[in-house]
TrEMBL record:
Domain F-box, chain residue ranges per copy: 18-54
The UniProt record lists the keyword Repeat: yes
Descriptive protein name: F-box domain-containing protein
Repeat keyword on record: yes
Source species of the chain: Citrus x changshan-huyou
Gene3D superfamilies hit by this protein: Kelch-type beta propeller
Any Pfam family hit: F-box
Source superkingdom: Eukaryota
Domain FKB95-like N-terminal Kelch: 101-295
SMART domains linked: Kelch
Length: 352
């Protein structure tokens, strides 16, 4: 039983969540209210607000498969030369992006920041500016409370680096500042641990987590088409060269769906590719209509659905569990764009 609820049930002086009902029954009912109405629930009473802000609330919804994934897009407004963040409820009939206000003031002009999600929190990490060296600062956004707070800083300053979540820990890898190392954040201890690795790339363009391992890809040289990729093996705490065939086709943003790797190739038009592990080959899934996509794009997945999010937060939605093609173009739906000035830096899913 939820700890917050069990404590209130044992204390008769505490006002019940719902008059006439035991709190565990009240929780059973409230937890089934869709996430888009949670802001309204918080206005009912201080007890309801405290419940919805609690870790127990998130754990209960996750345990009973009631949690809902929303998409968070970290962007840069090129006209205002500042970063911004939007959130999308993919289940909403309106399917419209909403801006998250009051980002930490010190981050607004920075470039090369990391953006990662762990539990009900999103993190802005590191970054640098024209007159500011790389920083180790970290800021935490609590999605249930809609608030930003300072978080424990990384062990070293980083800019333009890779991020990933593995075994409920955040990994920050390479980048400008201290490129031959990686940091690991443990939320249980609220501490970072620094590791060194001479083979880690200086400039990292993309990363993903698959089969309990972290993959990173470095910048491709203009003089060669060769793609360099490393894979982190947690069992040996070491970095190795990734499969050359897999790396050769990793030429765009990547996302993993049901342990299958998909990459969006934006080199000539926009097409979705899938890595076939058994044959160690890349197979085309289909092309996307140039009328819908607005490269450069990023990928994020919820269940079997891939969201291709491009400039202005325009989004193309593809159900890879039921892919259809018409004349070689993948059947998809789209979400209208917001602002032509916004470039997508990173997209993540956060469930509550």
């Amino acid at each position: 039983m939820d700890r917050l609820v069990s404590r209130s049930n044992s204390n008769p002086s505490v006002v019940p969540l719902i008059s006439g009902l035991p709190d565990d029954i009240a929780l059973f009912c409230l937890a089934r209210v869709p996430r888009r109405y949670h802001a309204v629930l918080k206005c009912v009473s201080s007890r309801w607000r405290g419940l919805l802000h609690s870790e127990e609330w998130c754990v209960y919804r996750r345990k009973h498969n009631l949690d809902e994934n929303w998409i968070y897009a970290f962007c840069r407004d090129n006209k205002l030369e500042r970063v911004c963040c939007y959130v999308l409820d993919p289940n909403s009939t309106r399917r419209s992006w909403k801006m998250i206000h009051e980002l930490p003031a010190r981050t607004l002009r920075r470039k090369g920041m990391g953006f990662e999600v762990l539990g009900k929190n999103a993190y802005l990490l590191g970054g640098c500016g024209w007159s500011e060296d790389a920083t180790s600062e970290v800021y935490c956004y609590d999605a249930s409370m809609n608030t930003w707070t300072d978080a424990a800083p990384m062990s070293t300053a980083r800019c333009y680096f890779a991020c990933g979540v593995l075994n409920q820990k955040i990994y920050c890898i390479g980048g400008v500042g201290d490129s031959r190392s990686w940091d690991v954040y443990d939320p249980c201890t609220n501490n970072w641990k620094l590791h060194t690795e001479p083979n880690i790339f200086t400039e990292i363009e993309d990363s993903f987590v698959m089969d309990g391992k972290i993959y990173v890809r470095c910048s491709t040289s203009a003089a060669t088409s060769h793609v360099c990729a490393l894979v982190y093996e947690p069992s040996t705490d070491s970095w190795l060269h990734a499969d050359a065939n897999m790396a050769s086709g990793w030429r765009g943003p990547a996302v993993v769906v049901d342990d299958a790797l998909y990459v969006l190739d934006q080199s000539s038009g926009t097409k979705l590719m899938m890595w076939q592990k058994e044959s160690r080959e890349w197979a085309p899934v289909g092309r996307l209509s140039p009328l819908l996509t607005r490269p450069p794009c990023k990928l994020v997945a919820i269940g079997k659905t891939i969201f291709v999010i491009g400039k202005g937060c325009s989004a193309v939605v593809i159900d890879v569990g039921n892919i259809g093609n018409i004349g070689g173009i993948m059947v998809s739906s789209s979400i209208p764009k917001l602002n032509d000035n916004d470039d997508i830096i990173s997209c993540k899913c956060l469930a509550i």
